[in-house]
Specification:
Structural class: mainly alpha
Largest sheet: none
Radius of gyration: 20 Å
Strand content: under 5%
Order of helices and strands: HHHHHHHHHH
Shape: elongated
Number of strands: 0
Number of helices: 10
Length: 202
């Protein structure tokens, strides 16, 4: 028998995507402490029983959604463009911070209750599995290939780019590509003992 509502039946992947999108919207609106399976299901137009088939609770859905939405840096094969790869990593971060997932993380970390509930799991199950801080994957990749001493890749150095981009966004200014290049040239590369070598035409 056909669906009398006229709606096309969604595939399992489409339902999962709708649920993940719904939880990101829901946490921004209500906060971590008020996330419920009912609220997520209602926003995703999905029965609560469907959610329980895949996830144990609302936090499980939230962490899964954030994991799937988190970008992964992909350094240039052959380690041929450290500066360009670092700039692209910061562009990836900028796009992510302005996305539903980035807004959800900001809502979690600026909510004392939310941060207390999920911050450890967020770092363990999302950020650490997706490469840690932005630029860290690229920096580690190039350090492993001898472009600079691995000992210089400290936690502080790994955080520089992310911290400066975050500050710009918190100040209400979306950093331009030129701003991101300046962060790489004036902060990250000097911290690992390198000078910027601009491509011709920059």
């Amino acid at each position: 028998m056909g669906d009398r509502s006229g709606r096309t039946r969604r595939s399992a992947d489409e339902v999962a995507d709708a649920i993940r999108a719904a939880v990101l919207e829901e946490v921004v609106e209500v906060g971590v402490g008020r996330l419920t399976m009912e609220g997520i299901g209602r926003r995703a137009a999905t029965a609560r029983t469907t959610l329980y088939r895949r996830w144990s609770d609302p936090i499980d859905i939230l962490l899964d959604a954030l994991y799937h939405a988190h970008p992964v840096e992909e350094p240039t094969p052959g380690a041929g463009d450290l500066r360009g790869d670092l700039i692209r990593s910061l562009q990836l971060m900028r796009a992510w911070m302005l996305s539903p997932a980035g807004r959800a993380v900001a809502a979690i970390l600026t909510d004392p209750l939310g941060a207390a509930q999920v911050s450890d799991a967020l770092f363990e199950k999302v950020f650490a599995r997706r490469g840690g801080t932005f630029t860290n994957t690229v920096l580690q990749y190039y350090a492993d290939r001898g472009h600079f001493p691995a000992a210089l890749l400290t936690p502080v150095v790994a955080d520089i780019g992310e911290a400066l981009v975050t500050k710009r966004l918190l100040d209400g200014t979306q950093p331009s590509d030129e701003d991101l290049a300046d962060i790489v040239d004036q902060a990250i590369l000097p911290a690992i003992g390198l000078r910027a070598h601009h491509p011709q035409g920059d």
